Structure formats: C-alpha cells, structure tokens
Amino acid sequence: MSKHAKSQSTYAFENTSTSVAASQMRNSLNKMIDAVEDPKVRAKFEVEMDSFFSLFRRYLADKASGTTLDWNQIRSPTPDEVVAYSSLQDGDNSNLSKLAVLKLNGGLGTSMGCVGPKSVIEVRDGQSFLDLSVRQIEHLNKTYDTDVPLLLMNSFNTNDDTQIIVRKYQGHRIRIRTFNQSRYPRVFKDSLLPVPQSFDDNLDAWYPPGHGDLFESLVSSGELDVLLEQGKEILFVSNGDNLGATVDTKILNHMVETGAEYIMELTDKTRADVKGGTLINYNGQVRLLEIAQVPKDHVEDFKSIKKFTNFNTNNLWINLRAIKRLVEANALEMEIIPNSKSISVGNSEMQVLQLETAVGAAIRHFKGAHGVVVPRSRFLPVKTCSDLMLVKSDLFNLQHGALKLDSARFGGAPLIKLGSHFKKVSNFQQRIPHMPRILELDHLTVTGNVYFGRGIQLKGTVIIVCSDGQRIDIPNGSILENVVVTGNLTILEH
Questions:
Q1: Any binding-site annotation on 354?
Q2: Which strands sit side by side in the sheet containing 337-345, from one edge to the other?
C-alpha cells in the first residue's frame, strides 16, 4: 500500500456521495503522484495535489451543507475597520527598507487578443505593464537609496515567457524575483474526477487556482523566507494590470504605526463597479463580501452604491510574518469560487470546474485587518481596449513609470465603451492609430466599423454608431462635442 493510500485513514467520511467523490479523487491523485519518477518533481507535485485535495474536500463539504451567508448578520464596517486615506499622516520614507512589492502575473493577454503574459502588452509610450512597474520601483530605489525588490507571481501559462522577459532588466537598480503559483487539476463537472490522467498531461487539463494561492505558493517556493532574511516585513500586492497601484508611503507608514497585519485598499464605487467585492462586518468580524456569496434575492441590495459605497481594488498590504504563521498553521481557509469552463475532449465539449480562491478573502484571518478608502487614481486597471484608450490618452502624463492625471482635467476619468470591433489590441491599433484628445470628454461610445484619423478632439458626450455593412471614418482634425454620429460616413483624405 502506498503512503498516499495509508494517509486516507485520516479522512473519515460518512458513507455518502460526498465521501465517495472524495475517495475517488484521492485515489486518482495518488495514481498520478506515484507515476512520477523524478523524486524532486514528485515531492513538489505531491504537495500541490495534497493542497488541491484539501480545497476539493472543502468544496464538497460546503456544497453538501449549503452554507451561505446570513444576510441579516451583515453590518457596515466600524470606523476602525474602514478608514479614510485623508486621515492618514504623512511620514518619512524610512519604512521602505521593510517593503517588498508583488505583482500578480499569472494572466494571459488572450481576452485582448494577445499571445503570452498580459504584463507584456504595450500600454504607454512603447512600454508594457511590466516595464512601468520596473521603472516605478527603480525610481523609488534611486530616489530614497533603498532596496525594494519586485516579485512576480507567475502561473504555468506565463512563467517561461516571463523568465525570458525579465532578463532585459539586468543592470537596472531593482532585484526581480519570480515564483510560480500552484498548478491544480481541472475537475469534470459530472463525475467530479480530475481531467488530467498524468503529471505531464496537456495544459488544458490544469489551471492556476486564483490569486488566493499566493500565500501557500509564497511559502512553498521559499521566497517568503528569503524576504524575511532580508529584513522585509510588509508585502504590497496588486494586480499586474492596475496602473494605479504604486507604492504609497502614507499607507506603508500607517500599517507600521497601527501594527495591522493586513490592509485592503478600497475606493468609492460607481455604477461601473457594482459587482466589486466590499468589506463588511459579519458576526463582529471584518470580511470581504463578493457578489458570488450574495443570496439571489439580495443581489440588487449588494449592487446599491448607497448601501455599499466602496469596493476592493485588490491593492493589499500584508505582513510577511503573519503569512508564515497562518500558512504553517493551515489556518487560511478562504471562500471557494467554483469557476465553470468548457474544454474540448476528443470530439466533444466537456464542462469542467476550477476551484479558485481570492487573496482578498483572507482578510478575516489577519489581526488588526482593515480597509483604507483611497482616491480613485489608485485603481486604474486595463482589462479591455476601452481601458487601454484611457491610459494611452492625453488624460494622463507618465512620470517615472506612474500615470498621473493631467491637472487640467476636471473630475474623474471619462466613461469609454468601445464595441466588439475594438476588442483585440491589433484591431484597436488599426482603428485608432493616433490617440484623440479626450481631456474634456465625459462619455464615449463607439460601435461598428469605425476608424479615427489624426488630430481628433472628443468633448462632452460622443456617441458613434456605424450601421452593419457600413463604415465610418472620422476625418483628421475633427472636433466632436456632444454629438451622435450614425449611419455611414466615409470621408476620404484630400
């Protein structure tokens, strides 16, 4: 009997469908583990599969019990649990020596029609997300004579490309470290058995289990111990595509002064952010409430910008020793997000599950954890080409890798909605080869086969709708202010 099979005695399940599913999953995982010949590879793979199995068991238990939040127990956070950025004190930069920065770098650019890691998409002046992050931290290290390292948490999808890309930063005043998050098996939705049959099955059979995996991966990779040995105490975590997530010494100093183990940056919710998770007080404990956890009859309450006024930016400040303590105690049980996908198996499409967790959900496990409501400028994600147009425009100035809103702009950023013709970056670049001036723009909607010329200005509300089978060319030098352009407008350059 293998050591894996022996360990099954520790999992005492009642004779139910839940226990049968768990037993079948454990057996399938053990077969894959035992078939790996290289001892080092097998040891690492076994740790990953044990972590996955723990997650799978929790998923089954939650599903069986039907555990949901009691809406009546949800309260607004207390003044200690959510504080205003404006109440934070200015301080010196001495705490920078305690800081490390981590960018979540596991995503591909496929949703924007790009190949490879999303972090290498060009976003401004020929520079990628990763280029801008490196410039920001390098500037910080030079200006304050400090040594803030940059960590990249890759996935198996992005690791190989990222290893090649980071070589170009050798010689820069920045230490870049990379590590991989876990690789978990997708699960067939009907049988609840793993999709892969072996360790080296094709990549479609596996998935990176969300950024909640950060904690275990940081510890198991050895990177957390390296940071502690270097005297680092605080990790600033953010999405790789959030161009507003720069190091802020006011928040860093506030964390040191308060002794908080976890700080989540929140920002005011607009109607475009109604699905974003928010902090709540639940049974006297601060927690992150995501829309997936909300009972169906309360979804509209959750979306209310009056009831829940801010949302999670996923800019997080976390104490490194606290991470180590909680991971070693196996105390980080975050809510599971079942993500349904469809994959091709042979000649048929099969429904599969990915069991994921979110790093923000861990907040309830940390001492003194609270939120800070930050300016909207710290949340500047680029998820679509509509977002890309915003950050490429004259609305922002680039300063040492950070985007700063032009002082001539009145109010926040405009709302931009580009249609399906602009979904891919290549299409976007072809249709908008020269960025229009949008300093005075409030709202832009573009749908259909539309092309922009050079030197265009957009002001107020501009709506451009091209009819099916037609084409609209916005001529060079056009000034569009509070207009609706429809139909077919083909203008040739003279």
A1: no
A2: 187-188, 348-356, 337-345
Summarize pLDDT for 220-276 with one digit per residue, the tens: 999 999 999 999 999 999 999 999 999 999 999 999 999 999 999 999 988 778 788
CA atoms within 13 A on the CB side of 398: 18
**Does 412 show up as a binding residue in the annotation?**
no
- Of 274, 260, 306, 294, the C-alpha closest to 68 is 294
Domain boundaries, the chain: 3-65, 71-378, 385-487
Q: Which long-range contacts (CB under 8 A, 24 or more apart) does 339-346 make?
A: 340/189, 341/186, 341/207, 343/186, 343/195, 343/204, 344/204, 345/195
Instruction: Supply the pLDDT for residue 9.
Output: 39
Q: What percent of the chain has pLDDT over 70?
A: 95
pTM of the model: 0.91
Is residue 181 part of an annotated ligand binding site?
yes
325, containing H or E segment: helix 320-328
- Has 404 been labeled as part of a binding site? no
Q: Which CATH number fits domain 71-378: 3.90.550.10, 3.40.50.11270, 3.40.50.300, 2.160.10.10?
A: 3.90.550.10
Name the nearest CA neighbour of 181 among 152, 205, 150: 152
Strand partners, 317: 236, 263
User: What would the mean pLDDT of 3-10 be, rounded to a whole number?
Assistant: 43
Give how far the C-alpha of residue 94 lies from the chain's centroid of Cα atoms, to the nearest Å. 29
Q: What is the DSSP string of 67-126?
A: ----GGGEEPPPTTTEEEGGGSPP--SGGGGGEEEEEEE--BSGGGT--SBGGGSEEETT
Those residues whose C-beta lies under 8 Å from the C-beta of residue 63, and which sit 6 or more positions away, are 18
Q: Can you read off the two tokens belonging to residue 416?
A: 């931009």
Strands of 129-197 (E only): list them.
150-154, 176-180, 184-185, 187-188
Q: And the tokens for 221? A: 């990779």
| Top CATH class, 385-487 | mainly beta
Instruction: Return the active site residues.
Output: 383
Confidence of residue 16 (pLDDT cuts 50, 70, 90): low
The residues, any chain, with a CB within 8 Å of residue 300's CB and separated by 6 or more, are none
More reliable by pLDDT, 324 or 111: 324
Does the annotation list 63 as a binding residue?
no
Determine the average pLDDT of the residues in 83-96.
91
Average pLDDT over residues 188-204: 92
419-458 pLDDT, tens digit each:
999 999 999 999 999 999 999 999 999 999 999 999 999 9
